[in-house]
Fold this protein.
Amino acid sequence: MNRPKVNKEVIMEAATSIAKEHNYSATDIADAFCMHEDGFQLAKRLESEYGWDVGVIDVENLDAMQSEVKNIIRAKGFEWVAKENIQPPFPIGTMITLGEITGLCDYEPATYLVRQYGETNENRRLLVKFEKAVLHT
């Protein structure tokens, strides 16, 4: 099984959550939703293509859609890690093409913390999914 990704099912789950909370149509929201757009853009699409009468409060409410999708994917990712017993392919300290693996991310499933080559900020790290980490040769 592969890492969970955004799909129609996830979008509908998020839309259902938003719709239930604000008495909206989940189907309209799911159909109109585009990843990487904010609540204003979603509201405008719902207004022009679905006949919604939207106001400022609706824009604010719909702005949560993107976060809801990300939260669902993150939760499904942690479920996937547990169910499939996903383990890091490389230990901490390994040099990969982007830099040195310095730890595991607690916030994103199956993700390394990587100090990029030449990085001078001691606190800055890249987030690299396990499957994207390539051993430096």
Q: What stands out?
A: The chain has a mean pLDDT of 96.
